[in-house]
Every structure is written in C-alpha cells, then in structure tokens.
Amino acid sequence: MLKLVFTGVWVCAVTLGSVYFSMQSASAPAVPDGEAARRASEQYVPGEMITIPVIRDGSVQGYFLTKLSFSATKEGINNLRAPLRQMVTDELYDLLVGSKFIDIADTGTFDLPTFKTTVKDGLNKKLGDEVITEVLVEQLEYLTKEDVKRVANSQNVPRQKPVPITDKNGNVAGDKLPEGAVKASSAH
C-alpha cells in the first residue's frame, strides 16, 4: 500500500514539474520595456473601404480602391474633435484626389513605403499631433474606367434560362408525379 502511495506522489511530482517547465519555455519572448510600453499605449483602428477617383487632364481616368488601417496612440485618439475614421477618409481624399505624387495607373512607379509615409505624415499634420504611428495596408487596387465598364456590362447580361434536371428516362424532374403519389401541401 505504501509503495502505491509513493508511486502516486512520484507521478504527481513529475507531472507538475513537466507542466511548470513547459509553461516556462512556452511563455512569450521578453519584449524590451520601451517596446512593451509603446504597444500598450497604441490602439488598432480598422479602416473602411474608400474609393477615390483618379483625375488627370480634367477627367476621371480610373478609381483607386483602398482599405487602410492604422495604429494610433490612445491618448491622441481620445483628444480628437471628430471620429478618427471620418477624419482619415477626409484626409485621404485631400491627399489623393488629383494628386501628382502617386500615379496609380503606372504600377511600375508606385512606391508603397512612400505612399504609407505620405499618408501617415498627412494624417498627423491634419490631426495636429503624432497620433498615427503606423499605416497598415489591407487592400490596394486600381480600376480603370474600362474595368468599371466591363464589370457594369457583365452584370447587365440577360440571365440564361435554367437547365431542367431530367431523370434517367428523360423526364423533367418535378413535372410528373409517380402513380399514387400525393402532392405535398406548402401550407404551414
């Protein structure tokens, strides 16, 4: 009996020791104190889909679709006079409509880091403080006017008639009921 008790204590000690050491090795890596404090003072702000017309030579050449999210200081967000999402949308229109520094149509010259820096600097200038700490690109697309027309026209194509489903004898399903079958009522 005593041998059984010692075996049970031994198994419990080994189990507790292995759980303790596995938790120690699985814990998050140490983050420098400055980095942890910075992360704790920031908040993720999800963006919304924004469609901005690309205007060149006095006419719309295409549409810039973007969804940007932001990392911002909590203190800065609390001190804003309007909701951050609406201010961001307004500033993106100010920055990008008719802008010469970004030629979205020429994807070879588009510089994403410069775009993110320009958006961050423009937003912080509008907000009057270093509120935005990072710009996160979730979606970034450019559609030409031809792309938009092609999509619009494909939605207006007349629908095809449905193809009837037939059984192995060539009878259209749902047309005839087998002999003796009673049609079910749809009343509830």
Provide structural commentary.
This is Type I restriction-modification system methyltransferase subunit. It comes from Ensifer adhaerens (Sinorhizobium morelense). Residues 153-188 are annotated as: Disordered. With 188 residues, the chain is α+β, with helices and mostly antiparallel strands. It has a domain at 39-151: Tetrahydropterin Synthase, Chain A, CATH 3.30.479. Helices cover 41% and strands 21% of the residues. It is built from six helices and four strands. Strands 1, 2, 3 and 4 form a four-stranded antiparallel beta sheet that branches. A hairpin with a 2-residue loop joins strand 2 and strand 3. The longest helix has 25 residues, at 2-26. Mean pLDDT is 75; it is low at 172-177 and 181-188.
Keywords:
6 helices, alpha+beta, single chain
Structural topology:
Blueprint: H1 2-26, H2 33-40, E1 42-45, E2 49-56, E3 59-73, H3 74-78, H4 84-96, H5 112-127, E4 132-144, H6 145-155
Antiparallel strand pairs: 1-3, 2-3, 3-4
Helix pairs in contact: 4-5
Low-confidence stretches: 172-177, 181-188
Percent of sequence in beta strands? 15-25%
Structural class of the secondary elements? alpha+beta
Mean pLDDT: 75
- CATH fold label of the domain at 39-151: Tetrahydropterin Synthase, Chain A
Largest sheet: 4 strands, antiparallel
Number of helical elements: 6
Q: Total strand count, please? A: 4
CATH architecture of the domain at 39-151: 2-Layer Sandwich
Write the H/E string, N to C.
HHEEEHHHEH
Radius of gyration: 31 Å
Helix content: 40-55%
So what's the overall shape?
A: elongated
Distance between the termini: 69 Å
- Name the CATH superfamily assignment of the domain at 39-151: Band 7 domain
**What's the CATH class of the domain at 39-151, please?**
Alpha Beta
